[in-house]
Design goal:
homodimer; 214 residues; alpha/beta; Rossmann fold; Arc Repressor Mutant, subunit A; 2 domains; six-stranded parallel beta sheet; DNA-binding
Chain lengths: 214, 214
DNA sequence: AGGCGCATCAGCCGATCGGTTGACGGCATG
DNA sequence: CATGCCGTCAACCGATCGGCTGATGCGCCT
């Protein structure tokens, strides 16, 4: 790939507004060429096969064809395209799966325009680009390839979690277990980290999926 | 039972402090007689068989022998004793199970002393006594015998709930679904009512148990 | 002896949640 | 056509949560 050849793009997002915004942004900048758009993962895989873009800008969380699955399919299919994940809002729980699935970069849509351009150029060259928030998450999560993070919860943590699943507030949990509210919060913070979630609702969901509850 | 015969009591609670408190309270008042105490459901069933108390004051949520199971066993065994449930803090999800299991009354420990006395007298006569909070829950839950309230969630509500289970905040859910945060909250309030829970964590738990999620 | 995980606690903060009340249009059912 | 459910939205409020920093004591393993 020479310096003057434009980087070709495929934009994947379920929000038409976002697609337009990205298209406009890249068409207005030199060195980029938007080949097409797709509204979901399935469509993205199809179009990528035909168009062979350099970089795919992909949203996660789309109706009808999740982003992570699409990435996995693309990389497994040996596609040349680099996938740059662009998440709508903040760093959610799909970060690691997306990267494990083969995403080359991961950043937030509210990143400055120039960061976006740089990220796409970097991705086109195969360099990994991560938004700071994501990067910090990754370093704190240096773990084996594809390991679904399975740290065991302590007995006390499981006890707290079980009460959380019953709708018990931290204060109530404290009274139930004869400990202070501060301790309850500590247990919660720890088990959030172990489960890889960020609030009690997600903790309960993950616990059910792993058979810790129910 | 004549007017001057004291009402005999069995106190069941895992907290020694609470047991002492109740014992002291009833021993100081005329017309009551505390026969014994138990620290869990199993012990309660055993002692009730031997002592034949008029009223059993029972906490729910105890380690080693849940209160509801004990109540069920007592009533199924044809015990004469009336069970008055005394919950530590507030109206939790065990309210209905406890009453269905055969509890004669249900009130909160922070009820005024006289309410407690009256409740025990009422229970001894077989009258049902409920704390206001519990009563209002019941009227809004005129369920058939043993029916675990199975109101179906609307499609939108299920959609919101699924995102909640992923740890998504209300604001993020709003963006995902192209609706306002106010609407998200409305959906949540509705689905809490339908599931009979009071926060998102319990909603997720209930949803898993009913197969709505996972 | 030193390190490590677990459990306990404090205080502060901003962000978020849940409750409440009230409202509007659409659509179906009766 | 009246009633009810669904979906949408607003504004306000107190309660709760989650993050952060930092600290102590205990038991276990090396």
């Amino acid at each position: 790939m020479t310096d003057d050849a434009p980087i070709t793009l495929l934009i994947v997002d379920d929000h038409p507004v976002v697609r337009d915004g990205l298209r406009g942004m890249f068409e207005a900048a030199p060195g980029f060429r938007v080949l097409d758009e797709a509204a979901n993962g399935v469509e993205a895989v199809e179009k990528a096969a035909g168009l062979d873009p350099d970089v795919i800008l992909m949203d996660l969380r789309m109706p009808g064809g999740g982003g992570v699955a699409a990435i996995r399919e693309l990389t497994r299919g040996g596609a040349r395209a680099k996938v740059l994940v662009l998440t709508t809002y903040d760093t959610d729980s799909d970060t690691l799966p997306a990267i494990e699935a083969g995403a080359t970069g991961y950043l937030l849509k509210d990143a400055p325009r120039d960061d976006l351009f740089n990220a796409v150029r970097a991705a086109a060259e195969g360099r990994t680009v991560l938004s700071p928030a994501v990067a910090s998450r990754l370093v704190s999560a240096v773990r084996g390839p594809g390991a679904p993070r399975n740290e065991p919860l302590s007995a006390r943590e499981r006890e707290v979690l079980a009460l959380v699943a019953k709708g018990t507030s931290n204060r109530e949990i404290a009274r139930e277990l004869f400990i202070s509210e501060a301790t309850v919060k500590t247990h919660l913070t720890h088990l959030y980290a172990k489960l890889g979630v960020k609030d009690r609702a997600a903790a309960v969901a993950t616990a059910y999926q792993r058979g810790i509850l129910g």
